[in-house]
């Protein structure tokens, strides 16, 4: 198959019309008379298959990788329709002219918490901050629940344009490996790129860890701006690999022995209790300390990433100690307050590494027993299921294996896949119904124990089959306490 060659004259003419307000669509059902239709292919579909419907709806321009019949509409053959969409979106919304500084955060775990911490830090310094992430899309005067960690390309540019209108100074966004691989951030120029860590996740999509890492690296290797800075975790082996080949960078971590030749921000845990922790930072010969109600070494790492962004944005060490009153992140080691005084937390941990990190944190706080409710998502990476169970078994006195979002898989099959990882656990409870599993876990507790309900965190739904049902771990906890204690 011959490589598609772009006719630059035709492309520039289309860009000019889009810059004047010509509408662009990627869903053939949304096309209106005179619109541009960009035929984007997905893993299960060929964008060219939807051209006839777009033409029927009145599309005047078709952007497609293939040579297709377009009738009276103008065909613009483009080697990458996804990249074309980014350029069209940038032209339509004028995002190239935006004064907003854009920060992208990728990594397996910690992205959401880090966005909240950066928002807290920069807002405390008087900046207007917008956030696009797993929990919500928000900026001063606007907030909506997030359907995707990283929105689609057109929507991204649209929201950044709205942030610009609202006077936002810095936009902080989570950038998933899927979004990078699918070129959803095309047309954007990042002022800083953060990588928190790379551990096993999404291998059902990427195939293996090396391809997963390559997708994460795209945030650093593409989408440049003149002052772009990499903020890279040198505690993580993949982070150290990236530091070897990316500059300019600030390396950050809790293990100073792993610091590289680049500028480094090193953290030291001064103290950590159930009430919070104190960190000491060292960078370029300066030292400072911060206090926070957050707990755990992984949160120490997230705090370092946020402060590294602060340094890049011109903040001083004196401006860093603003996390004492930080309320935390929904569903990220979030305490479920209750009238029985039980120590119950919900957390979004849905990877082996994330579950290991949060459980190790709780285990170190000297509770009498650690009780863990966990499951594994359906239609996702099956290889991580026994690894999730191993992490639960490693630190839990009671492991409760249940459903997460089974989707179209048999929930019992998912449990069967995870069960081998629980070999050697003293006390295992299997309960396919998540609400019943939570109830049984609460019934196991005393006031000296801690219960972690992992996997769904802030989510207020459960996907069973193709149906999205209302479900909140926090609400189910309170129902269980009321039922058990009256």
Characterize this entry briefly.
With 486 residues, the protein is an alpha/beta fold. The chain has helices at 8-19, 51-56, 81-93, 111-124, 153-165, 177-181, 203-206, 209-221, 237-245, 297-312, 352-363, 385-395, 411-418, 434-443, 473-485, and strands at 24-25, 36-38, 61-64, 74-77, 101-106, 129-132, 136-139, 142-145, 170-174, 192-195, 229-233, 249-253, 263-273, 276-283, 286-292, 334-335, 343-347, 370-374, 398-401, 428-430, 450-454, 461-464, 467-470.
Notes on the structure:
- The structure is a single chain.
- This protein is of the alpha/beta class.
- The chain folds into three domains: 8-92, MurE/MurF, N-terminal domain (Udp-n-acetylmuramoylalanyl-d-glutamate--2,6- Diaminopimelate Ligase, Chain: A, domain 1, 3-Layer(aba) Sandwich); 95-319, Mur-like, catalytic domain (UDP-N-acetylmuramoyl-L-alanine:D-glutamate ligase, 3-Layer(aba) Sandwich); 334-485, Mur ligase, C-terminal domain (Protein-Tyrosine Phosphatase, Chain A, Alpha-Beta Complex).
- It has 15 helices and 23 strands.
- The chain has helices at residues 8-19, 51-56, 81-93, 111-124, 153-165, 177-181, 203-206, 209-221, 237-245, 297-312, 352-363, 385-395, 411-418, 434-443, 473-485, and strands at 24-25, 36-38, 61-64, 74-77, 101-106, 129-132, 136-139, 142-145, 170-174, 192-195, 229-233, 249-253, 263-273, 276-283, 286-292, 334-335, 343-347, 370-374, 398-401, 428-430, 450-454, 461-464, 467-470.
- The strands form four sheets. The protein has an eleven-stranded mixed sheet with strand order 8-7-6-9-5-10-11-12-13-14-15, sandwiched between helices. Strands 16-17-21-18-19-20 form a six-stranded mixed sheet, with helices on both faces. A four-stranded parallel sheet has the order 1-2-3-4.
- The N and C termini lie far apart (70 Å).
- The mean pLDDT is 93.
